[in-house]
Amino acid sequence: MKIAAADVVVTSPDRNFVTLRITTEDGITGLGDATLNGRELAVVAYLREHVVPLLVGADASRIEDMWQFLYRGAYWRRGPVTMASIASVDMALWDIKGKAAGMPVYQLLGGASREGLLAYGHASGKSTEELFESVRDHLEQGYRAIRVQTGVPGLRSIYGIASNTTSGGNAGVRYDHEPAQRGARPAEEDWDTRAYLRHVPAVFEAVRNEFGPELPLLHDAHHRLTPIQAASLGRSLEPYDLFWLEDVTPAENQEALRLVRQHTTTPLAIGEVFNSVWDYQHVIREQLIDYVRSAVTHTGGITHLRKVLDYAAMYQVKSGMHGPTDVSPVGMAAAMHLALSIHNFGIQEYMKHGARTDAVFRQSFTFEGGLLHPGDAPGLGVELDADEAGRHPYEQAYLPYNRLADGTVHDW
Ligand code: GCO
Ligand code: MG
């Protein structure tokens, strides 16, 4: 099982994706997602310059050993670029192991713990009417859990609102929310926390009145609040019984959640920008969160995220893996294999990719009746069409950033 070749494929069908493809001497290929939104080429350089040369000639069957070698052997540990790079190697090796065994990866991880994965989609609208329409559309697509984001009166643009008028190669593609815009500079958005805090509870009241008490509803505050503002939002949303409230405070400060937790019983999810178990050390052990938001792609792969989730299980904390469009179909498939096998699965974010992306990455996972399933193809079950990928060269794109009314940069 020696690695004969490894190459990094950068493609931009509807958005940019970075994929590592490893080929063994006996011709088995494995794929790994290494996409880091807005900083893609940093990961490409890390892989091409420092990882690929170490892979050639190595034993593809030694997944744990390769993980430890790339993590400990670099001396410089953690961080999104490093951990996305390691994640892509890890995913590709699990893909190869599954193909060699003739089994889907979830079987190698212990087999299925459930029939399918409850998925949530992104409903959004600038106004309440637009939002209701979007919720209805998601229900028609089969979603059984829905994230709700709306515009805030007085703010021009805001995180989480769908747009089908994006420029450049994306024009006409409807994503429920694709924040990264193609172009040489990031878009500037505006923010006002007080206006947001006044508006959001009324939106949830309207949604509950329209759609009833049963539908699981989620909301993302996208790191913008102070601990006391977050506590106040959590409390004001309690009557609407959220499935979770996500990223209430900037994620670096694990202690902030102690204060939030003292004041509200609204369940909390955090971690899409975390990249190792150390980022979760206190929030899990002190039971300050209810859901782990990491993606396989950004947290060192299946090998490392499985350890995070096993640790979380000891404290009744569940998975809620990140699944925006910037996680490629390969990263999504890896998440589904892991989610199907673990006991402490909570929910899976699923936004769907555009048609061009689906043509580059042929997938065997399914979404039926609100449930995802990774499928039973050997390995991860995603194949890359290299010709299709080659038709869509990389295009610079950035996530937006925020300024307050007085010009101060704020968390986006
Ligand atoms: C989510 C996330 C995304 C991120 C995006 C950044 O909950 O899905 O917050 O929308 O903003 O993935 O790259
Ligand atoms: Mg989020």
UniProtKB/TrEMBL annotation:
SUPFAM superfamilies: Enolase C-terminal domain-like (SSF51604), Enolase N-terminal domain-like (SSF54826). Signal peptide: none annotated. GO terms for molecular function: hydro-lyase activity; magnesium ion binding. Residues 128-267 form the Mandelate racemase/muconate lactonizing enzyme C-terminal domain. InterPro entries: D-mannonate_dehydratase-like (IPR034589), DgoD-like (IPR034593), Enolase-like_C_sf (IPR036849), Enolase-like_N (IPR029017), Enolase_C-like (IPR029065), Mandelate_racemase_C (IPR013342), Mandelate_racemase_N_dom (IPR013341). One of its GO terms (biological process) is carbohydrate catabolic process. This is D-galactonate dehydratase family protein. It comes from Phycicoccus avicenniae.
